[in-house]
Specification:
This protein is an all-alpha fold and 145 residues long. It has one domain. 64% of the residues lie in helices and 0% in strands. The protein is built from seven helices and no strands. It is globular.
């Protein structure tokens, strides 16, 4: 079976945020503890490899903020599925409380804010080590013209 449920017309930046959100944060731990596993070494290696290739159209400065909400698309589709298709209120409650509210709360909490700062730092380091133009430099150049 092939699941095309997440196929859509999205930007590369959106797909990058999904990749980070799904692969480097251990969301399953959130059910048991507020401090969850973060694979910072894996994220660092991934971003290092990702930034080795040019991405001239992307504004990576918004990635940390996008990452905080990117899960909502899937979470809302799951909520709708559980409410409308399976009519399973227990699963719908879990989708709402754990996936929608829980993830947002985590990002607003101390560990989520630390992760956001770490991601910002890693992106800045990768810009400095690559041929990419920092988006803020691009913006200032536009406003000077």
């Amino acid at each position: 079976m092939i699941d095309f449920g997440l196929c859509d017309r999205n930007s590369a930046l959106y797909d990058l945020a999904i990749t980070i959100e799904r692969n480097f944060i251990d969301w399953l731990e959130l059910e048991h503890t507020a401090e969850i596993g973060i694979d910072e070494a894996g994220l660092t290696a991934f971003l290092n490899a990702y930034f080795k290739h040019p991405h001239p159209q992307e504004d990576f400065s918004i990635l940390p903020e996008l990452l905080q909400i990117v899960h909502l698309d899937f979470a809302f589709s799951e909520l709708e599925y559980f409410l409308e298709i399976t009519q399973n209120q227990t699963h719908a409650d879990a989708a709402y409380e754990d996936w929608i509210i829980g993830h947002v709360d985590w990002f607003l909490g101390e560990q989520g804010q630390q992760f956001t700062q770490t991601l910002r730092r890693l992106i800045t380091q990768e810009w400095k080590g690559s041929d990419l133009i920092h988006p803020l430099q691009t913006c200032s150049a536009i406003f000077k013209s």
